[in-house]
């Protein structure tokens, strides 16, 4: 005869099932809460209301929303110039729209995306520019913490003739100054004779030289002797290191902050006057906040900015630059594959894009591989019968300066 369950055991069964159900609900709710707080929106709200999290990371997250708003408004990335703030906010972005652009549409897109991401528009104002131009300035971020000042400008109408409606005599008008192109040549070290010939040129370009590769001391001396500005390529840890390896002297994320700082300062002192440090590889290092903080501490002490080459999607360098007091730049163009033999049409098309950007913004910072084909093309552009459509300028005149302490 089967044994009957006791009444007590039967009565406990619903309680156990109920407790398990509540536990499952708590686990589910906890998982959802953790997922939310780990999201971009959750991290912004956590910092906004409880001041928990990393300040530089919040700047980066708000910046992502600003980019999304500009993209939704149809603003191309090339129309945005980013730099350190001047006191109002951590960063200052200038958006140069074409005459047909709409600052109000960009304003609406930024406001919508920033608020969707947990941020707020702290202030906004309009002002008119000459000849029916318009500028809209927004300050966005969190209450008590301005992350971005965004200036959106639409130019006015082209200047016409005198008050009687006659067109101005173009022959009597002063010629407009051609836009500036700041050129940084890279790709040295394969041919000593070619390298020496390039460094003897008198054009005001800069050269990007390795801080640690074999024979780098000789190249640095030659560059200084030729009075060329130096962008120092510091090897930094890439993803899949050491399978992918920048070579000797690489700065690693596993190094202590003190060692990263001391090695970087040593490289700069050996270079003897670099205008900027640039990353050679570094896709892993530039995503690591402690690494970037140590790197920036060295740059801040040496008074040198950071030129970020091929930024990784999750790199933290831009967002941390303002808070660490370091000037940050990225090249407007990098001409590499186009400079190979037989790629003349591709190089010409890329150069047209460079000139178009420089014409709209007044200047362009260009990295170009120093191949014979590239230098021959550059010489042809400078030797045009009616004169070049641009001015070559020293890159130090275009790079940002560190914000004042």
UniProtKB/TrEMBL annotation:
Domain of life: Bacteria
Pfam families found in the cross-reference section: Polysacc_deac_2 (PF04748)
One of the GO biological process terms: carbohydrate metabolic process
CDD domains: CE4_DAC2
UniProt-recorded name of the protein: Divergent polysaccharide deacetylase family protein
Organism: Eiseniibacteriota bacterium
Lineage: Bacteria, Candidatus Eiseniibacteriota
């Amino acid at each position: 005869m089967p044994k009957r369950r006791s009444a007590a055991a039967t009565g406990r069964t619903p309680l156990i099932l109920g407790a398990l159900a509540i536990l499952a609900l708590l686990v589910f709710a906890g998982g959802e809460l953790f997922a939310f707080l780990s999201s971009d929106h959750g991290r912004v709200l956590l910092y906004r209301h409880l001041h928990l999290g990393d300040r530089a990371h919040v700047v980066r997250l708000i910046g992502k929303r600003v980019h999304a708003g500009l993209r939704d408004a149809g603003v191309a990335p090339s129309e945005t110039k980013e730099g350190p703030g001047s006191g109002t906010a951590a960063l200052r972005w200038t958006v140069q729209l074409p005459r047909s652009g709409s600052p109000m549409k960009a304003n609406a897109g930024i406001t919508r995306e920033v608020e969707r991401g947990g941020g707020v528009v702290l202030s906004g104002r309009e002002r008119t520019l000459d000849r029916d131009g318009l500028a809209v300035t927004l300050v966005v971020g969190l209450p008590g913490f301005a992350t971005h000042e965004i200036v959106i400008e639409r130019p006015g109408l082209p200047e016409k003739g005198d008050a009687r409606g006659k067109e101005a005599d173009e022959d009597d008008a002063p010629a407009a100054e051609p836009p500036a192109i700041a050129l940084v040549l890279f790709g040295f070290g394969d041919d000593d004779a070619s390298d020496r010939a390039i460094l003897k040129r008198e054009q005001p370009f800069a050269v990007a030289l390795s801080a640690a590769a074999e024979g780098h001391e000789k190249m640095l001396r030659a560059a200084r002797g030729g009075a060329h500005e130096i962008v120092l390529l510091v090897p930094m840890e890439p993803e899949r290191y050491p399978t992918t390896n920048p070579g000797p002297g690489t700065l690693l994320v596993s190094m202590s902050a003190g060692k990263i700082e001391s090695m970087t300062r040593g490289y700069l002192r050996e270079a003897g006057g670099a205008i900027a440090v640039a990353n050679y590889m570094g896709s892993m290092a530039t995503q690591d906040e402690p690494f970037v903080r140590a790197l920036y501490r060295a740059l801040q002490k040496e008074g040198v900015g950071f030129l970020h080459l091929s930024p990784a999607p999750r790199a933290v360098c831009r967002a941390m630059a303002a808070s660490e007091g370091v000037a940050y730049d990225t090249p407007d163009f990098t001409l590499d594959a186009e400079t190979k033999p037989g790629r003349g049409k591709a190089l010409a098309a890329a150069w047209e894009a460079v000139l178009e950007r420089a014409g709209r913004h007044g200047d362009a910072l260009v990295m170009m591989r120093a191949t014979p084909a590239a230098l021959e093309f550059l010489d042809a552009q400078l030797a045009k019968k009616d004169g070049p459509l641009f001015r070559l300028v020293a890159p130090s005149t275009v790079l940002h300066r560190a914000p004042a302490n």
